[in-house]
UniProtKB/TrEMBL annotation, chains A, B:
GO terms for molecular function: phosphotransferase activity, phosphate group as acceptor. GO terms for biological process: polyphosphate metabolic process. This is PPK2 family polyphosphate:nucleotide phosphotransferase. Transmembrane segments: none annotated. Residues 52-277 form the Polyphosphate kinase-2-related domain. It comes from the Bacteria.
Length: 306, 306
């Protein structure tokens, strides 16, 4: 009875919120389709909603609690033996808002349920190993939502653009990624790969504002301006990588990201929807309830100091 | 100028909040003193404040933003070469509220700035190594607030109570811990060790409510009732461990925890105060501001597709 009541209350809440804000299934709208062209996707667009920025912020706040509860159920079920977990891969040009998504979407779930890994330029030891060597240990354990801020995709994106690896090695990696992600998926990892798509004009405004604000200088790197000179090559590398690694078990979503609020609320919704699909009922305890009640009650008079 | 203005605004905010809520320096009140007796500390007490539960919740919310900003400064400074980081060790009997502190105090800082490690019963591989072998890799890197939910202290607490290790090995560990923590401290780790102190009566109420609520069953373990039979031995192990490992560089704080709100707001305050003592001004950028402005502006006309 208690179980059913909780589930019911939860389901109603999410449905109500979603129906008000989203006019269409945003996960379906943003999911990559056969023949997609990145150059045809407008970073200013807001697929699936006619909401204002203020409504977007309100929806983000409203959906925090459903996301938190779904995450807690995922974690609870892992204690009861479930292998389910989620891996969100975030890839984007600099200043596209990956950090904001981590802080404002995933920062709202319990720390126990979040596995954040930020991949930077590989160390000498990492470079000496296969490119997936440093990734495997960061795959989330059951019950956790893993978030990769950059990922193994850097090895076919920036490494392709700057030819840090020869073409045949880049070519090998697409297949290796697909096999790796298939193996993770077969073990219960639900993979959501997201490209946050901003325009060069919007990136300019964001980098420029970092220079304007002394408390943001630590986030600015000289390489940020350099990479703008390779924008077309980066987009080409994204186009190819997404074509080669978009699979049923590890799909790509392209999220227009010129509006920070839209990108956050869309990614939040994609993750909530995936969790909803998992049918996350609360697991039963692994003990005899009446016997435990009796054992615990037998200690009810305990005091200390005696 | 911008730098000074930011610092000033920040400092005022924290001071105002603290002065309203805390009548005394709570970190000083809760810090272990020579000759302390755990049995004389009342888990129901609320040292340092006369506030109500509602005021406690309000203070917790009010101090989220100062804590977030201090954390961000700590992180920013690590990018500029600072070795500073914080390690909070949480130890307590079951259901004392460690999880609530993680979620409601540390869950409010940015995920990039939090390094949470939960130590469970050691695996066979971990048992084959020295007891600190599994701890070293979890020490936070510069810029991060590490939180240990249980820790190397389990090796002198539960292991002492149940004689999982012989007395001479337990004895060895106190010294090993002090040397380990001294080495961490010398490398820039600011260590805060907290015992959350609840009464057996309060633990009974909390465990009992977990049995009452089906969505909490996954948090209940049969060992919870068993361990109540060893309460006095656990308290003795705490008393000895704290006496033996309370040092200037790695002090213990005993936080009365029968009131969840008090424990949370007191721990939040202890951490904020430690961060304030570090003098965390924003670091300068590692670039020539005018030159970068010019380089970036030279790319301001970039569009894509061309």
């Amino acid at each position: 009875m208690g179980q059913v009541a909780v589930d019911q209350a939860y389901t109603n809440e999410v449905t109500d919120t979603g129906e008000k804000f989203w006019r269409k299934d945003v996960a379906d709208l943003l999911r990559v389709r056969e023949g997609f062209q990145l150059s045809e996707i407008d970073p200013d667009s807001l697929p699936g909603t006619h909401a204002s920025k203020a409504e977007g912020h309100a929806e983000l706040l409203r959906s925090e609690q459903p996301l938190r509860e779904l995450q807690e159920r995922l974690l609870a079920r892992s204690w009861a033996g479930s292998r389910d977990r989620v891996l969100v891969v975030l890839q984007a040009m600099d200043a596209a808002g990956k950090g904001g998504v981590v802080n404002h979407v995933f920062g709202e779930i319990e720390p126990y349920g979040l596995g954040l890994a930020a991949f930077k330029a590989p160390t000498a030891e990492e470079r000496a190993h296969d490119f997936l060597w440093r990734v495997e240990p960061k795959v989330p354990v059951p019950g956790v939502i893993g978030v990769f801020d950059r990922s193994h995709y850097e090895d076919v994106l920036v490494q392709r653009v700057h030819q840090f690896a020869p073409p045949e090695e880049i070519e090998r990696r697409y297949g290796a990624i697909n096999e790796f992600e298939k193996r993770m998926s077969d073990d219960g990892v639900h993979i959501i790969k997201i490209m946050m798509h901003i325009s060069p004009e919007e990136q300019y405004r964001r980098l420029s504002s970092r220079l304007d604000e002394p408390t943001k200088h630590w986030k600015y790197s000289e390489s940020d301006a350099n990479e703008r000179g390779f924008w077309a090559q980066h987009m080409e590398a994204f186009q190819i990588a997404i074509e080669r690694t978009h699979t049923a078990h590890a799909p790509w979503y392209i999220v227009p990201a010129n509006s920070k609020w839209y990108a956050r609320v869309a990614i939040q919704r994609i993750v909530i929807q995936k969790l909803e699909q998992l049918g996350l009922t609360w697991p039963p305890g692994d003990f005899d309830l009446e016997a435990e009640r009796a054992r615990l009650d037998a200690t009810s008079g305990l005091t200390w100091p005696a």
